[in-house]
Specification:
binds ligand LLP; 9-stranded mixed beta sheet; Lyase, Ornithine Decarboxylase, Chain A, domain 1; 29% helix; TIM Barrel; alpha/beta; 435 residues; 2 domains
Length: 435
């Protein structure tokens, strides 16, 4: 298993993260347990802040909260000076409760309700990304009634097919996100939106997909989007000042994954942006990107307890753990592949090929289809790396499994930031309690 950030084998032959022994963490907080390496998160944030910079325009790093969100994390994002992408009224609520400065919120969503838009206006979010014409009409009505000036970006679909799993491509011609730049009505809409008295059309947004490795897709997005800004200006006279290029920077999960180094990818984007903006004489003075996975994924490790082992009649060996698709649905949803290690046997050589499966009543509840592991015993702690993104945020209560706890580690200290759900949490919304 590749070790990231502060992961290391300690003297006791245990995996340690942030200078904290993971076996001690498993004992103290129970399993499954999400362990977040705060040092690595901070390092990733620094890379974005320092490498995505230009003297020609302002840059904003907008953390995509869908990757991982809780109050403590929100506060860390505030402290680091990042903006944040939210998608629902629930995200807005969490941001508000964490004291997130609302002017740094970018409100997303392809299906926003009147009440969500109203909440965004009540809170005074920085900018709303309007996904479609129907949403524009809702927002136009609302802002007129409230006489509230509101900054918007228009989400467009530039029709770029990035090489990634089809479920996380977001910019193919038939994607549900944004309005196509090839739609014959698109320029009329810009004129119409620009005429709305309380909407300030600042720019455009695209997000071409997630877990993208090559810089060519991002650079193509820069070219297509800047060309489109120029077209909007020439066709409608609307001068756009903000370009938001979304997220999607790929990370390593398993052997064979070879993402380009983040800093180099960002340098290449900045160079292409500066060139395209200058060549096309655009009024773009702000560029935003929205990384999620690349900030948190490699910083997260999930700890499980091995509850049983089994060899099937066909000879398949299973290591069965106390979590599974409830804390990480990605293998079941996207055939995502992970690497694991027996955290209390770090220096033992992997000797057996096993399938790591979870506890849910579902054959597809597999965490790692096939991997070489050290000889595991019941009671051992299995660690799966690179589980910081889209795991906790996509977790469920299937089979009434309680959501796992989250602990942040740094400099030899651990800080419980989300506790494990209680049994009471499982029934707190049920109204049929007799006693
Ligand atoms: N901005 C927008 C508008 C997005 O839709 C997304 C991700 C991001 C930014 C952040 O993308 P990232 O940097 O994290 O790749 N559940 C899937 C991923 C879904 C991504 C959805 N949108 C997974 O587990 O792979």
């Amino acid at each position: 298993m590749r070790l990231f950030g502060t992961m290391a084998a300690n003297e006791e032959n245990h995996l340690s993260i942030g200078g904290v022994d993971t076996i001690a963490l498993a004992k103290k907080h129970g399993t499954p347990l999400y362990v977040m390496d705060q040092g690595l998160i901070e390092e990733n944030i620094e890379t974005f802040l320092h490498r995505f910079q230009s003297e020609k325009f302002v840059t904003n790093i907008v953390y995509a909260s869908k990757a991982f969100l809780n109050l403590a994390f929100c506060r860390l994002i505030v402290e680091k000076g990042l903006s944040m992408d939210t998608l629902s009224d629930g995200d807005l609520y969490i941001a508000k409760r964490a004291g997130f400065p609302m002017e740094r919120i970018v409100m997303h969503g392809n299906s926003k309700s009147i009440s969500e838009l109203t909440m965004a206006l009540d809170l005074g979010v920085g900018v709303i990304v309007v996904d479609n014409h129907d949403e524009f009409e809702k927002l136009d009505r609302l802002t007129r009634a409230r006489k509230q000036m509101t900054r918007i970006l228009v989400r467009v679909n530039p029709g770029i097919e990035a090489h990634t799993h089809e479920y996380i491509q977001t910019s193919t011609y038939s994607s549900k996100f944004g309005e196509s730049i090839f739609d014959p009505n698109i320029f009329n809409w810009f004129t119409e939106m620009d005429a709305a008295p309380y909407l300030q059309v600042e720019g455009i947004h695209c997000h071409i997909g997630s877990q993208i490795f090559e810089s060519s897709s991002f650079l193509q997005a820069v070219r297509v989007m800047t060309e489109f800004v120029a077209k909007v200006e020439s066709e409608t006279g609307v001068r756009l000042t903000t370009l938001n290029l979304g997220g999607g920077f790929g990370v390593y999960y398993t052997e064979g994954d070879d993402p380009i180094a983040l800093g180099n990818m960002l340098d290449a984007m900045i160079a292409t942006l500066e060139e395209e903006i200058a060549d096309r004489k655009l009024g773009i003075n702000r560029v935003m990107i929205e990384p999620g996975r690349s900030i948190v994924c490699n910083a997260g490790t999930t700890l499980y307890t091995v509850e049983a082992r089994k060899t099937t009649y066909s000879g398949k060996r299973y290591v069965l753990v106390d979590g599974g698709m409830t804390d990480n649905p990605r293998p079941a949803l996207y055939q995502a592949v992970y690497e694991g290690v027996i955290a209390n046997r770090m220096n033992d050589a992997p000797t057996e090929e096993v399938c790591v499966a979870g506890k849910c009543c579902e054959s597809g509840d597999v965490l790692i289809q096939s991997t070489m592991l050290q000889a595991a015993q019941v009671g051992d702690v299995l660690a799966i790396a690179s589980t910081g993104a889209y795991t906790y945020s996509m977790s469920s209560n299937y089979n009434s499994v309680r959501r796992a706890a989250v602990v942040m580690v740094k400099d030899g200290q651990d800080r419980l930031v989300t506790k494990r759900e209680s049994f009471e949490d499982l029934i707190r919304n049920d109204l049929d309690l007799e006693a």
